[in-house]
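DM between two lab members

TW: hey, do you still have the Aldehyde-activating protein entry open?
JB: yeah, one sec
JB: this one, 133 aa:
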Amino acid sequence: MSEYFGSCLCGNVKFKMQGMFEGFYLCHCRHCQKDTGSAHAANLFSSSAKLNWLAGSDSVTTFTLPGTRHKKSFCKFCGSAVPSIHEVGQVAVPAGCLDTEIDMSPTAHIFTSSKANWDNGLDGVQTFEGLPE
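TW: and the structure you got?
JB:
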């Protein structure tokens, strides 16, 4: 059985996931763009993995956008995205909150009809290993 550990930015929330991820989606919908402040969300999904909060479960707040299935759980202290449990029994894990390496590549880009226009042709953009001087 695979085991993954994760935490929020401030370290208050810590969790363990036991099981396998069935999907890894890069979601370009407008809801994910708004709640990440970026071009897309990167979430892993599992309908069989078990989520165990190791610390800070009382610091986890969940927002569900009315009239949608869009849900986001986050640390109420630092705002970092953390796993959320959806009504269908599926656990969604933001890939960036994992402290354990994952050996899975994204399954697919989804909701690409909403893709940000500035998220195209990025191969030619200058890169830096750290903060540019």
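TW: got it. Residues 124 and 130 are 18 Å apart (CA to CA). The domain at 3-114 is CATH 2.170.150.70 (Metal Binding Protein, Guanine Nucleotide Exchange Factor; Chain A).
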